[in-house]
């Protein structure tokens, strides 16, 4: 298996005017640019050509995933230097860097000829600063530094603390800031210290974060020296000077006047002393003043130095946008320098303004020696705010300014903080040019999308952290920053404000932009308001910064920074880092591909039988699962493309490699048609694979599992074991059963009972060695309380939303897994610890090195089709996978055979075959019944079951085939005594009449024949016995034959609403109710059979596939109770709801000899359409049949005609000659029929038979003489010429009179004569037969017709309606064939169907 690299990048077409395309490329390791280039060109619509990245041309052998072909790279489909080699640079080693202002972040090298800066500086540096002149200043290199020359700007120039007048110039070094309009620039040497990096080869670069001892923040206090006190002027002590005078006077009195001189000496001395003191004090004060001035100057110099150091420190603490971009591009040594919990974590710079210094100046107050500390205002200091302290930062103002400030604040955060410590939730639009669209490339971005996406992400973060805090869990969470660029248009402001307020103590902060400060959420405890290029900062509990210049960056700055950080990963996390892909071979290093079967068998021989599976790798270690200790049950969630199905295959395969089929077996349930498990079904451990369950199969599987639980309980009870492990120690031989269900959410939606049942069984089976593994794409809402209670180990791959992740692992982390990391997931076991892992993948046969390219939309989602190519096919090489799944399955099978392991017990048998043949079935079996509760399948016999069967199904469901199979199961028995009859509505069973066991196949259209069949079956047993007794030579009573009636198409028997009028359906119901044990009836039909009376009589009903499955409700079933298969012959036995598959059997091929002792089946006569009267009379020759007759059978006459009857045709009931017997029927007969039904022919047949018997026949008819000619008599009487009739009557009292069209006789001369003959016919032994229509017969109340009608005897020709038989006192049955000459012979209100013979004249015979 080839590990793959998945990375996103941007491709710019050759034409710069064309739109760039974001693509995700998934390629195996070792792929080169030449392999990918055709798909890149196809995606952009450009022909493949030169490719450059970061200004450097790339060769075709550039390796995909190695620098510079990294995640987030931008490829240009053109030559970076189309006109030749690049021009040599004339730049110095010093850059001019714009460190603050409206276009911060710009960096340009200062050329030797100097650099012009302005609003429109041509080839110089043009800045988007409205306070700049078009050509504002020139910066030129000099021998001792650089010189800044004002080019006559409007708003002047400032270098350091010096204002430069228009046209003036100033020499600067690299430490001075240069103020140009609202922008601030400085000179800096190009290049910076870089961080140690390691290219991983998968499109990512690991960055080592250097140690960072954070010095304490400088906050010195400088005290002004105390000014010397002014000298005190000494006072002359006049009292002291006068005190010696009295003493001197006394002495002078005693000693003389010279003593008065001593009196003057003391005052002089005192005065001199005072004068001397005053003079020396003034000199000392002068010296103190000079010393104080020196000390004050030193203190002020110290303060200035501290201010300079503080300025440098504050600029260094909060790097400017240009430095931030340089750190990201490097990557610089300062990348991700701030650790979680550090003093400066979350601090960001907003701009440059005049701020109080941190260093305090304490002036001399002239009293106590020190005054109140003063923080002098320093110009051009970074304005900062601590995001961790304020919780939320709001920025209000014009949209472009807000976007620029947000951009540079975010840039500082993501450059200073590792993705391990900082995560972004960014609300973004649907366009690639959104102001914050660059954040989609950042490794910190965990959620990027619309308002609902961000709201859901925040909701889950806050909820999870609140729960962790409540339960005493961790509180040192990574900082989550919600980035909301436009609060004015936020439809979720209410809930969002609540989440942000709750999240402030949970390390959830926000960066919010708006055009009005009033639109900002209350969570913004720091607000920046921008107006006319100036900004004001207000922070809760702090003095505002009334005015400063905000740092604003342009779109290019964010794009470069995002692309630079895109491929970087934290090396500290990389040690914990997981591989992007992993082959199972790497995790099972003991498996030797060259001799896999041997190493597998060795592993099986040394294992202790525990269900251990190596599934992948966690941080620095292999990740394995022991179902007996970590389980016993497992839940896996993961959306499409997350690697969920791969994990299931790895789990099953790894278990199989570790444990033999004697230790563990699998039942695999896949609702995706079996694709999830692939060749896992070929493992010798797999005892069941179920795909695409419907409700019927689900019930079957659940019932089989219940039976398996019962079997295991019985085995443990027999061994006296406490649990599964105890049983293994005592007896062994019982493997663990691992049930793996993929897509159980779909099952839960469509078959909730199945999932609930399996979970319940798993709860019972945990001590019986039964393990359940549930997997789904959409866990939210599918994880019930039972699943929560029984599943101990939970695994979440990447899921679609936080709710899914929360439902599986109780954390939102799985919702933030990257889409380009299939197999990445989180696991939470019984200890509650959440572990991130990379699942191993087992190869598939013939796996090729596939390259996929798909376009991405603005939210990094796949857009449009995936363009793919097979690298092996392109290079003409064959893919080789040493340990693919098919090979491992084959090796495991070989190992099982080498160890002579028995095939493990199957908890359920395979589903019934849809094509069941007689091979392997008993002779009397009609199908196979599935009994999952008994874990077996048994044959089904019709011969062994009592009673009648109904077979219900829709078209093409196998109803007719079922009848053939049932018949075959009877006739296949040698010496069978079966007499079978078939009522066929479709004609498909007509060939069965060829079988010696079949008496007749009666088509449903032959309605009267159907009735005769039913009449025959009522009396068949007695008739058969009687026939056996009359056989010549019969000396013993033979056993009565068993009778089988097959009725195909019950619904077609009832095509007419009044069909039951003739009693056919009632007759069939009566036949079934008769309780004759020798009669078995099988009826097929549609759903109408389920609701009719027949369903209450049948002992067994088989339900085949219905035309509309909803019709199963008529059988008390729901749609879900029906079998999954709709194959012909698949049935449900309604009595016990057992599923059957009827076999396809051929009675012709399988028929055996009948029992010779049993009479053959009695046939059911089929009347021909044409019978010759001469043949009937003589009993010789063949019967004529009509050319269009269907399946007519020739019926021979039964012998010479008896003298007591008149042969008129053939009888359906006897199959012999139909007789008109005057002695039985009476001598007054009517022939009633509609025109064209053969009334005249009927009269001719009677007359010809009477003439053949020697009787005189008179025919009363019109001028045509048709009947008389047919009879062959010369006695033809016209209704108005009755002389011949009277004469004949006198001569032959037993005269046979035939009257055609009797309604024409009414009122004629013949009417009274005929009435007289009729009144005396019984006495004279004659016969009067009149023919008329049903209408005349039923509406005539006097005359000849009425007289004859009272006898209610005669022939009813082809009745059309039941009312046609009213004259005879019967209801004419429907369905009588409308063939001319087909009639009912009626006498005593009983009737027999006959086919009247055709009487031909001598001319017709000759012809």
Automatic annotation (TrEMBL):
GO terms for molecular function: ATP binding; DNA binding. It comes from Knoellia remsis. The keyword Glycoprotein does not apply. This is S-DNA-T family DNA segregation ATPase FtsK/SpoIIIE. The keyword Transcription does not apply. Residues 193-228, 1145-1167 are annotated as: Disordered. Residues 1145-1157 have a biased composition (Basic and acidic residues). InterPro entries: AAA+_ATPase (IPR003593), FHA_dom (IPR000253), FtsK/SpoIIIE/SftA (IPR050206), FtsK_dom (IPR002543), P-loop_NTPase (IPR027417), SMAD_FHA_dom_sf (IPR008984). Residues 217-227 have a biased composition (Low complexity). Pfam families: FHA (PF00498), FtsK_SpoIIIE (PF01580). Residues 609-806 form the FtsK domain. ATP binds at residues 638-645. Residues 115-164 form the FHA domain.
């Amino acid at each position: 298996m080839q590990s793959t690299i998945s990375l996103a990048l941007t491709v710019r077409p050759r034409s710069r005017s064309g739109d760039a395309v974001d693509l995700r490329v998934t390629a195996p390791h070792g792929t080169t640019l030449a392999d990918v280039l055709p798909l890149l060109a196809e995606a952009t619509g450009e022909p493949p050509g030169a490719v450059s990245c970061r200004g450097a041309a790339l060769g075709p052998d550039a390796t995909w995933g190695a620098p510079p072909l990294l995640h987030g790279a931008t490829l240009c489909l053109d030559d970076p230097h189309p006109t030749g080699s690049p021009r040599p640079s004339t730049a110095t080693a010093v850059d001019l860097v714009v460190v603050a202002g409206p276009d911060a972040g710009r960096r340009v090298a200062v050329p030797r000829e100097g650099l012009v800066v302005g609003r429109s500086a041509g080839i110089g540096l043009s800045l988007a600063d409205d306070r700049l002149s078009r050509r504002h200043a020139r910066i030129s290199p000099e021998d001792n530094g650089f010189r800044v020359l004002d080019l006559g700007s409007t708003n002047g120039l400032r270098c350091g603390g010096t204002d430069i007048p228009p046209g003036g110039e100033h020499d600067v070094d690299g430490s001075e800031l240069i103020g140009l309009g609202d922008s601030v620039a400085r000179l800096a040497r190009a290049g910076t210290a870089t961080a140690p990096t390691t290219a991983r080869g998968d499109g990512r670069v690991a960055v080592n974060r250097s140690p960072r001892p954070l010095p304490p923040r400088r906050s010195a206090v400088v005290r002004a020296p105390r000014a010397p006190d002014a000298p005190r002027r000494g006072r002359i002590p006049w009292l002291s000077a006068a005190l010696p005078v009295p003493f001197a006077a006394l002495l002078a009195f005693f000693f003389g006047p010279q003593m008065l001189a001593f009196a003057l000496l003391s005052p002089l001395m005192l005065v001199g002393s005072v004068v001397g003191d005053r003079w020396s004090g003034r000199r000392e004060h002068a010296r103190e003043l000079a010393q104080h001035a020196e000390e004050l100057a030193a203190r002020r110099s110290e303060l200035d130095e501290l201010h300079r150091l503080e300025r440098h420190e504050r600029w260094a603490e909060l790097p400017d946008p240009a430095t931030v971009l340089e750190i990201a591009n490097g990557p610089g040594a300062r990348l991700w320098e701030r650790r979680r919990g550090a003093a400066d974590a979350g601090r960001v710079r907003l701009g440059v303004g005049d701020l109080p210094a941190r260093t305090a100046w304490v002036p001399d107050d002239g009293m106590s020696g020190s005054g109140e500390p003063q923080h002098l205002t320093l110009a051009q200091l970074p304005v900062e705010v601590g995001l961790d302290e304020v919780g939320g930062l709001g920025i209000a103002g014009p949209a472009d300014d807000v976007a620029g400030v947000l951009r540079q604040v975010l840039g500082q955060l993501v450059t200073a903080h590792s993705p391990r410590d900082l995560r972004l939730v960014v609300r973004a639009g649907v366009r690639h040019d959104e102001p914050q669209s660059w954040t989609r490339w950042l490794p910190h971005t965990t959620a990027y999308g619309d308002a609902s996406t961000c709201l859901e992400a925040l909701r889950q973060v806050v909820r999870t952290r609140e729960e962790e805090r409540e339960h005493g869990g961790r509180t040192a969470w990574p900082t989550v920053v919600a980035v909301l660029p436009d609060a004015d248009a936020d439809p979720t402001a209410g809930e969002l404000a609540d989440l942000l307020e709750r999240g402030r103590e949970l390390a959830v902060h926000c960066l919010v932009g708006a055009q009005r400060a009033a639109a900002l959420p209350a969570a913004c405890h720091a607000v920046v308001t921008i107006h006319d290029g100036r900004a004001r900062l207000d922070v809760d509990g702090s003095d505002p910064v009334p005015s400063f210049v905000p740092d604003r960056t342009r779109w290019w700055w964010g794009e470069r920074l995002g692309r630079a950080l895109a491929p970087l990963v934290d090396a500290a996390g990389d040690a914990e880092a997981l591989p992007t892909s992993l082959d199972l071979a790497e995790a099972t290093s003991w498996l030797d591909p060259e001799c896999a079967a041997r190493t597998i068998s060795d592993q099986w021989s040394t294992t202790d039988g525990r269900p251990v599976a190596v599934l992948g790798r966690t941080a620095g270690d292999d990740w394995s699962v022991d179902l007996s200790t970590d389980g016993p049950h497992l839940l896996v969630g993961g959306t499409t493309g997350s690697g969920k199905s791969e994990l299931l295959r790895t789990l099953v395969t790894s278990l199989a490699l570790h444990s033999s089929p004697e230790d563990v077996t699998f039942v695999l349930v896949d609702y995706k048609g079996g694709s999830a498990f692939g060749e896992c079904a070929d493992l010798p451990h797999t005892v069941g694979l179920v795909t695409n369950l419907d409700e019927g199969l689900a019930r079957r599987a659940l019932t089989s599992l219940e039976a398996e639980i019962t079997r295991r309980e019985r085995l443990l009870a027999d061994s006296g074991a406490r649990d599964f492990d105890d049983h293994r120690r005592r007896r062994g031989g019982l493997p663990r059963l691992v049930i793996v269900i993929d897509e159980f959410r779909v099952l839960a939606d469509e078959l909730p009972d199945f999932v609930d049942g399996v979970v319940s069984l798993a709860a019972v089976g945990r001590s019986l060695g039964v393990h359940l593994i549930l997997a789904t794409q959409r866990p939210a809402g599918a994880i019930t309380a039972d699943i929560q209670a029984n599943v101990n180990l939970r695994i979440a791959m990447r899921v679609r939303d936080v709710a899914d992740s929360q439902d599986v692992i109780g954390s939102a982390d799985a919702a933030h897994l990257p889409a380009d990391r299939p197999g990445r997931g989180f696991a939470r076991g019984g200890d509650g610890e959440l572990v991130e892992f990379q699942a191993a993948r087992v190869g598939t046969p013939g796996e090729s090195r596939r390259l996929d390219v798909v376009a991405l939309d603005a939210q990094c989602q796949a857009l449009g089709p995936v363009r793919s190519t097979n690298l092996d096919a392109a290079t003409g090489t064959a893919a080789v996978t040493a340990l693919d799944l098919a090979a491992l399955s084959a090796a495991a099978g070989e190992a099982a055979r080498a160890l002579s392991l028995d095939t493990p017990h199957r908890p359920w048998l395979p589903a019934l075959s849809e094509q069941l043949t007689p091979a392997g079935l008993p002779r009397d079996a009609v199908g196979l019944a599935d009994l999952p509760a008994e874990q077996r399948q048994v044959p089904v016999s019709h011969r062994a079951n009592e009673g009648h069967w109904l077979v219900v199904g829709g078209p093409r469901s196998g109803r007719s085939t079922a009848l053939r199979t049932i018949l075959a199961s009877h006739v296949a028995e040698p010496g069978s005594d079966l007499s079978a009859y078939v009522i066929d509505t479709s004609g498909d069973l007509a060939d069965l009449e060829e079988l010696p066991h079949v008496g007749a196949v009666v088509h449903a259209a032959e309605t009267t024949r159907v009735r005769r069949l039913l009449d025959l079956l009522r009396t068949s047993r007695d008739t058969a016995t009687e026939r056996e007794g009359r056989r010549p030579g019969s000396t013993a009573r033979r056993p009565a034959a068993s009778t089988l009636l097959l009725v195909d198409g019950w619904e077609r028997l009832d095509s007419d609403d009044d069909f039951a009028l003739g009693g056919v359906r009632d007759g069939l119901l009566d036949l079934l109710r008769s309780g004759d044990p020798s009669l078995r009836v099988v009826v097929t039909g549609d759903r109408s059979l389920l609701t009719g009376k027949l369903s209450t009589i049948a002992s067994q009903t088989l339900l085949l596939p219905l035309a509309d499955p909803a019709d199963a409700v008529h059988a008390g079933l729901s749609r879900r109770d029906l079998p999954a298969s709709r194959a012909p012959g698949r049935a449900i036995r309604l009595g016990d709801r057992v599923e059957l598959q009827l076999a396809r059997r051929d009675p012709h091929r399988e028929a055996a000899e009948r029992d010779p002792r049993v009479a053959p089946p009695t046939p059911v006569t089929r009347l021909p359409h044409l019978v010759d009267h001469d043949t009937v009379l003589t009993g010789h020759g063949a019967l004529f049949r009509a050319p269009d007759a269907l399946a007519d059978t020739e019926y021979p006459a039964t012998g010479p005609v008896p003298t007591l009857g008149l042969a008129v045709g053939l009888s359906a009931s006897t199959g012999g000659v139909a007789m008109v017997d005057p002695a039985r029927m009476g001598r007054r007969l009517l022939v009633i029929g509609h025109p064209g039904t053969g009334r005249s022919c009927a009269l001719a047949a009677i007359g010809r038979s009477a003439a053949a018997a020697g009787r005189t026949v008179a025919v009363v008819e019109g001028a045509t003489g048709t009947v008389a000619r047919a009879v062959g008599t010369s006695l033809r009487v016209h209704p108005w010429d009755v002389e011949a009739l009277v004469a004949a009557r006198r001569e032959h009292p037993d005269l046979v009179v035939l009257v055609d069209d009797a309604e024409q006789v009414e009122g004629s001369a013949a009417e009274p004569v005929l009435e007289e003959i009729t009144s005396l016919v019984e006495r004279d032994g004659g016969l009067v037969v009149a023919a008329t229509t049903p209408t005349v017969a039923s509406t005539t109340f006097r005359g000849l017709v009425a007289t004859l009608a009272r006898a209610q005897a005669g022939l009813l020709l082809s009745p059309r309606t039941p009312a046609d038989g009213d004259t005879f006192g019967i209801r004419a049955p429907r369905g009588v064939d409308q063939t001319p000459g087909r009639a009912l012979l009626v006498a005593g209100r009983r009737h027999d169907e006959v086919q009247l013979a055709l009487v031909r004249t001598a001319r017709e015979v000759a012809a």
